[in-house]
Structures are given as structure tokens and as C-alpha cells.
Amino acid sequence: MFNKVDRKIIDKLVDICGANDVSTEEEELERYSQDESGRFYAHPPEVVVKVESTEEISKVLKLANENLIPVTPRGAGSGVVGGAVPIYGGILLSLEKMNQILEIDRVNLVAVAEPGVVTNDLCKKVAEEGLFYPGYPMSVETSFLGGNVATNAGGSKVIKYGNTGHHILGLEVILPSGEILSLGGKRRKDSSGYNLLNLMIGSEGTLGVFGRIIVNLIPLPQYVVDLLVPFPTVESAIKTVPEVITESRVLPCAVEFLDRPSVEVASLYTRSRWEYQDRAESYLLIQFDGNNKAQLEEAYIRAGEACLKLGALEVFVAENPFASERLWRLRRNYLEAIKTIDPYVVTGDAVVPTSLIPQMLMKIKEIGEEYKTEILCVAHAGDGNIHSAPLKPKDVDPEDWQEIQEEILDKIAVEASLLGGAPSGEHGIGYVKKKALYLSKKSEIPLMREIKRVLDPNGIMNPGKVF
Predict the structure, then answer these.
(1) In this structure, are residues 347 and 389 in contact, taking their beta carbons and an 8 Å threshold?
(2) For the chain, which residues make up each domain, given as ranges?
(3) Confidence class of residue 136 from pLDDT cuts 50, 70 and 90?
(4) What is the CATH code of the structural domain delimited by 223-335?
């Protein structure tokens, strides 16, 4: 289907990007052969190309398209579904050198950035201007902005601020042909024809590559308060979520759920403990932000009272940055913590209506019992996004576990879909979840394929992903 990268192609890539940004060294190819989905899904590219401008991207894609060479765009490689793995070899197109924040426009409340900007760097930079970028995934300190847009990443703050797509006002997109499209802009309204901007958000590098990204900014909230709430059971924690949201009368910006095994693992990794770890079976981590201190205090007091009324063991309040960081550090390091005890783990991120989280957690428990394995669970409880991590039993070989693990995650994804949810809330489909997408969205896939054929008729863009 595809052609190999030969010496002639290498020479042309060097002409476009320079010798220092084109590599066929074995060590370099190995480094770009996998993402956070792990070594089971690793596959080396034939060449790594580090582009530094939209024009270089355009020329590389045009060359690849004309010669039927597959291209895999890559940001930080922090994805967990194999989206940045070049499973057909070809060109690994790294965007790591396109890492400039080009503009912070205080008048229009937008920032313009390149796709290789670390999301946390953008957050810090706009905060210096008294502004806030709300598109805040849990991998904020490592992930690139371009990858966030490519997967339509979510995170802990979706309940109040929405996922990445809510904050993308414009994209410069380079199509496989090399054509450069300018979609959207600094405006917040556009009812002019089909919304091609939203089509590109979440397309996982299968339709084109991003050159520049225009993001929405809002005023930086002055006050932030976090609540850590331990519960005696999983059910009591989850049933409290809607009460917290309604009783506080102010929408929280985050409501996170963690079960006891997840907290224990993350606690060992971070060398810190949460209160009541010897008694609590689950926790809620709740965050409020705003500019009215009195209103915020009233909101978190109401939320705490609602938690205690429904069985919480205690309510702990973190009112300063140090105390808040202690709580969030454990939550942010959850995935890294799991990998220290199970390096083969792949996580799922099915999403269901918030009211059905208890039902979905019960299904996950039943699936774990069926396969005789423990499945750790954390969730963005405010928006119904559950992250499940099946742990490899000691008596199962790693090679056998890959297939079993995929089966488990596919079953979880299908169960979520049957409850009115979807197989992914923020990680994307990539390579790992293709079967889950097929099983849950059979009627939509033919139309998706037609869109792909129109924009990428030769199928060179991130082949083998999504479908």
C-alpha cells in the first residue's frame, strides 16, 4: 500500500528541513517508536523529521503524498492509545521544535501558539497577564497543545469550562496535499457554512497537521479552594456528586473520584498520604474557583455539608497553594504510579452520563471478576469520564496479557456505549481502541471513512488509527 523511504526521499527531506532535523539513526528511531501506550504497540519509523514551520510541514506532506509515504504526526508522545506510533513506518513528523507562543492578545482575549508548546507553559505565560487558559488536561505539565487539540483532550476542569475543543477559536491546518487552510480566527461567532474547525479538533492527525492554534482566554480567577472528602464506600462518594453540584449553587471546576487502591498506589509513588487512608474506600477531590471570596466560601461550605449529610467521613479544606498542590500532586501522578507496579498497563477512558457512573463502576467490577484481575478506577466524576486500569495478574505472561487487556478495555467501552456513553472521553481512539470504536459506533464509521477519503485520498495521514 505504501512505499518505503529511500535515499532519494531522505535527500529531499534534508533539502526541506536541514540535515540536523532529519534522522535515520537507530537510537533516534527507537526513541520515537512508541508513546505512553507502551512497548506492546511500538513500531519504529523509517525516518524522524523535526519540522520548524508551517512551510516545512507543507513541503514534507506534499513530498510524502506524491510518493505514497505514510506520515505520523507526533507531539509530546504522552498519549496512551498509540496515536503517535508509526505502525506503518514511514515519516515520523515531530512538532517539538514548533514550541513558540506567538501572541497574547489582551484585547481579543486570545493566545496564538504553535502546536509544540507545552500546555503548562501556555497556562503560566497567560497567567502573568492576569488571564487563564481553561483547556487543562491532567497531563498539562507534559502534553503539547497540538496533541490536546488532536485528541480533544479533557481533564479535571471540564465540568465548568469544557474540554479543549471549547477553547479553540482557530487552526492553521496543513492537508496531506500540502495545502494550508486557515480555519476560524480570533472571532467567537461563525455561522458561515460547515464547521470545518470542529471537524479537525479530535481528528488525531488523520486529516492534517496543525501549524498555528488560536485559543480562547478568560480572566484569571483570583481565588481557588480544594476539598478532600473521604467516603466509607464507593457508592456513597459517587451518589454525592450531583448533590455537591446543586447544593453549592456555584458550579465546581473539578470533581475527581479515586478508589482506595488507586490512592494507595499513587500515595506510595508520591510518598505522600491523604487523610483517612486507613478507613476510606474512596475519595472526592472537589475544586471551586472564582473572583468573589465570600461567594466561594459559601459554596464550599454548602458542598461540605452536602458531603457530610450523605455519609462522608470528614471534609478537609485546602485554602492555600501548598495544601492544594499536595492533593493534586497525588491525583496527577496516578498513571505514572500504576506503571511502577505494572509496566504493561494500558488505561481506558470510557465516558457515561454522570448519573450512570455507579452503574458503570459496577459493570467494571463485574468485568474484573470475570477476568480475575483488579481494575483500578479514577474518574472525572463531574463529567462522567471514568479511567480504568486493569492490572496484569502475576500468573499471566506479558505477551498473553496484551490481548486479554484489550478485550477488557473493549468490553468496558461497549458497556459505556450501551449506557449512552462513548468509548473515549478524552484520550482518543488511536490504535488501541479501534475495535471499541467499531463496536460502539458502527453506523457512523462509514461516513467518517468518506470524510477521510475526501481529505486524505491516499491514506498517508497517520494510517491505521481510528479505523
Answers:
(1) yes
(2) 101-219, 223-335, 342-425
(3) confident
(4) 3.30.70.2190
